[in-house]
Amino acid sequence: MLVKRFMDEEILVAFNQMDPRKAPGIDGLSGIFFKENWEIVGNDILIFCHYILNGTKDISCINETMIVLIPKIKEPVDMSNSRPINLCRVIYKIIAKTLANHNQSAFVPMIHDNILIVHEFMHYLQSSKNGPNKGLVVKFNMSKAHDRVE
Fold first, then answer.
1. Which residues of 104-122 are buried (b: 16+ CB within 10 A; e: fewer)?
2. Mean of all residue pLDDT scores within the chain
3. What range defines the domain where residue 47 resides?
4. How many folded domains does the chain comprise?
5. Name one GO molecular function term (predicted).
6. Residue 133: inside a domain
7. Helix, strand or coil for residue 18?
8. Which of 7, 19, 23, 62 is found 20 to 30 A from 30 (Cα to Cα)?
9. How far apart, in whole angstroms, are the C-alpha atoms of residue 104 and residue 10?
10. What is the distance between the alpha carbons of residues 88 and 112, in angstroms, rounded to a whole number?
11. Which helix (H) or strand (E) segment is 52 a member of?
């Protein structure tokens, strides 16, 4: 599916689209740190992103995320009274944003490509010469995706 190689410009666009004030990841480094020290760490970040995005390195080395519940009301009683946020590493966010930009199909021509990709992926998971492939498909309920903290 990911045939086209990723360019430095795509990674930089994704990095610049991020809000540097967002919560830091599990490593404690925020987007502000990377923005202010880009001259020092920028080249290493680009190289590492290329390793992950082009399939040379496994993403498991940066795939730790901490889930924190933010209460919507003063005394939350159940999960619906809380809003979960994921504290992902900034480099993980850069990679995810680069992939999202690379494969964006909402409000652009040929939106049907995503349907074809999902169909091909499901076919791949269900059939193989050696039996079904292992994989995971997750469908999220987006009904409360834009709740606000009160």
1. eeeeeeeeeeeeeeeeeee
2. 81
3. 8-127
4. 1
5. RNA-directed DNA polymerase activity
6. no
7. coil
8. 7
9. 13
10. 30
11. helix 38-53
